[in-house]
């Protein structure tokens, strides 16, 4: 398959490119496109045959449901009902990085929902994404635009790296501003439950409805027999090519432990990658050190995480050692991704 790659400027959008990509989606093809979270790999959400192509291109397990992306608030045809709390969440956080799980209508095929009676829906804030959805004339089912299990792409070049020759069109549009997949909240239960942390934090959600809570299993290693209700609940995700360990505890002890482990690997002629922050990056005399940014600005940590893991792949490191972060607010989402990246390989200090 020949993959066409077009880069557009969100401040001066190429309508011809948007319309071309929209036509491909409408006719059952695959298009990678930017959102504020990560790049998505889109297909017509209402076509089971089109959606099947996503799973083939990504190598994605078919029991992993997809999120449906929309460009306006008219979702009545896609769902059976919209609880009042869901309406409040939509009004406050859409467009934006929040996916709301609702009971699906018969318009949504089983391929999109992984044969669940529910479906996740979100309205991206990225203008290119919304213009593409409008041009296609259909809701777009879209997981991240990468080979399944790899770090999600936040740059168009990473989509090309993973999907060249596997999809019809890659629509590039700059770096993703959030860098972490959307928060997912299940509104088919009462009180609503967060199934994946993201840029919309639990505290922000509680401002709308105080009873909203987070599934405690989110931060734990998933059971093998779980039937995922939302993307990312069951399978290893976001994983770099090299094995990864998270060193968790007091920062000074963490730095000392990482340096100790690094020396052991260097003695074995191994190339070590270290995932650090601005506050600690100069504390590591050996290894390839990548700073995610300052701990004072967790938004930067989240934005840079997946690209940093990709850079370690580029450098062909043998092992990655990562500092940990406090599991509160945005740090919860960051640690959720780190733990999955590391396969829950955590060293406590």
TrEMBL record:
Coiled coil: none annotated. Keywords: ATP-binding, Cytoplasm, Nucleotide-binding, Nucleotidyltransferase, Transferase, tRNA processing. Its EC number is 2.7.7.87. It is an enzyme of class 2 (transferase). It catalyses: L-threonine + hydrogencarbonate + ATP = L-threonylcarbamoyladenylate + diphosphate + H2O. Residues 15-200 form the YrdC-like domain. InterPro entries: DHBP_synth_RibB-like_a/b_dom (IPR017945), Sua5-like_dom (IPR006070), Sua5/YwlC_C (IPR038385), Sua5_C (IPR005145), T(6)A37_SUA5 (IPR010923), TC-AMP_synthase_SUA5 (IPR050156). It is found in: Cytoplasm. It comes from the Bacteria. It holds the Pfam family Sua5_C. Belongs to the SUA5 family. Required for the formation of a threonylcarbamoyl group on adenosine at position 37 (t(6)A37) in tRNAs that read codons beginning with adenine. This is Threonylcarbamoyl-AMP synthase. It comes from Clostridium rhizosphaerae. The lineage of its organism: Bacteria, Bacillati, Bacillota, Clostridia, Eubacteriales.
